């Protein structure tokens, strides 16, 4: 294996606050309960695996790493509160949040404490190109929305798209919709409907799908998480719509297939994770993840693993007094489960993306 996940880091520690025997504390913030818990739990698992592997290899410069995990509940007030608790616990960095909606409160609280935030999956363009303490290991929404728009216009012949977007994660969903619209209309396509909804137990998925279909689209676009995307797909199939079904990388968890069943067969979404990657690097990660959690990794677990590895590798490579953000910007690239992590000067990263579809109950790269 070209990248040995269990090799110790040989470099000086960049933390002056830790004594010679103190552990290095690193925090995680994600939604571990509620409607988007699939994303948060997968992220937590990737975070845990990265730390456990590093500890098994001797830690960073001989120091063990202590995990502190917090649930943001997909609630801004709770996200800010638990981030303040992590700052008070003197973590060196925060991995998270897992949604764009939580990025602002987490970043505000972390910035007040001078702590870098490395998000696995927050992709809103509102945070792109800013010199702040926010970094991320994925591209922003523009990359995925542009790829999706071009694929469906050019390869699937789609000309009219009707979209729903979840306003409970507005920072992400509106960013994604705006980016998709920009590319799709420039190509000559039309957004026949754009309908916002607030996800929850009372969401009327059938009524929303009926509104979409009333605009006579060629395809339905669900800018939502796995739970709602699965339910929208089920309602579309029940209506015998015969339209192409499109979703977004946010929904691309294994729960989408589990909840959606046959209804999500043929659904398309762009994502940066290739589950069929046969490289030794990824297969080593996959075996370790499955052995630890008794399930296959998803995109959120891969991204959280990569974010955690990047933070710990940066700390290990930098001089003692170097801030974590500076180390991340200057000491890369960093080991990833599938792709190397490279940050630009603003802390934004880019990853290769694929259009995938669900075929025979599995995500596969589309033709």
From TrEMBL:
PROSITE patterns assigned: PROKAR_LIPOPROTEIN (PS51257)
GO biological process, one term: amino acid transport
Highest taxon listed in the record's lineage: Bacteria
Gene3D superfamilies for this protein: 3.40.50.2300
Keywords in alphabetical order: Amino-acid transport, Signal, Transport
Family the entry assigns: Belongs to the leucine-binding protein family.
Protein's name according to its UniProt entry: ABC transporter substrate-binding protein
Organism of origin: Candidatus Proximibacter danicus
């Amino acid at each position: 294996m070209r990248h040995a996940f269990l090799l110790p880091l040989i470099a000086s520690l960049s933390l002056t606050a830790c004594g010679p025997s103190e552990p290095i504390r690193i925090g995680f913030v994600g939604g571990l309960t509620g409607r988007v818990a699939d994303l948060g739990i997968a992220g937590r698992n990737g975070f845990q695996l990265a730390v456990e592997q590093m500890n098994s290899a001797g830690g960073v410069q001989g120091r063990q790493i202590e995990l502190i995990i917090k649930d943001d509940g997909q609630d801004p007030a709770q996200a800010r509160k638990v981030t303040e608790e992590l700052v008070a616990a003197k973590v060196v960095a925060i991995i998270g949040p897992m949604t764009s909606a939580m990025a602002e409160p987490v970043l505000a609280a972390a910035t007040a404490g001078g702590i870098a935030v490395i998000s696995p999956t927050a992709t809103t363009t509102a945070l792109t190109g800013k010199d702040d303490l926010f970094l991320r290991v994925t591209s922003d929404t523009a990359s995925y929305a542009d790829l999706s728009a071009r694929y469906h216009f050019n390869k699937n012949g789609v000309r009219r798209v009707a979209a729903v977007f979840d306003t409970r994660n507005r920072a992400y969903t509106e960013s994604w919709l705006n980016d998709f619209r920009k590319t799709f209309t420039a190509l000559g396509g039309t957004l026949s409907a754009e309908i916002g909804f607030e996800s929850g137990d009372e969401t009327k998925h059938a009524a929303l799908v009926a509104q979409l279909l009333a605009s006579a689209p060629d395809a339905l676009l669900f800018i939502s998480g796995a739970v709602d995307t699965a339910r929208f797909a089920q309602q579309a199939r029940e209506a015998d719509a015969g339209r192409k079904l499109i979703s977004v990388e946010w929904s691309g968890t294994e729960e989408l297939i589990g909840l959606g069943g046959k209804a999500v067969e043929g659904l398309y979404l762009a994502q940066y994770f290739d589950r069929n990657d046969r490289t030794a690097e990824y297969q080593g990660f996959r075996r370790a993840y499955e052995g630890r959690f008794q399930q296959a990794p998803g995109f959120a677990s891969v991204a959280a693993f990569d974010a955690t590895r990047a933070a710990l590798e940066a700390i290990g490579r930098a001089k003692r007094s170097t801030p974590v953000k500076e180390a991340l910007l200057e000491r890369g690239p960093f080991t990833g489960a599938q792709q190397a992590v490279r940050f630009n000067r603003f802390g934004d990263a880019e990853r290769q993306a694929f259009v995938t579809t669900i075929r025979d109950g599995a995500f596969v790269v589309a033709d």
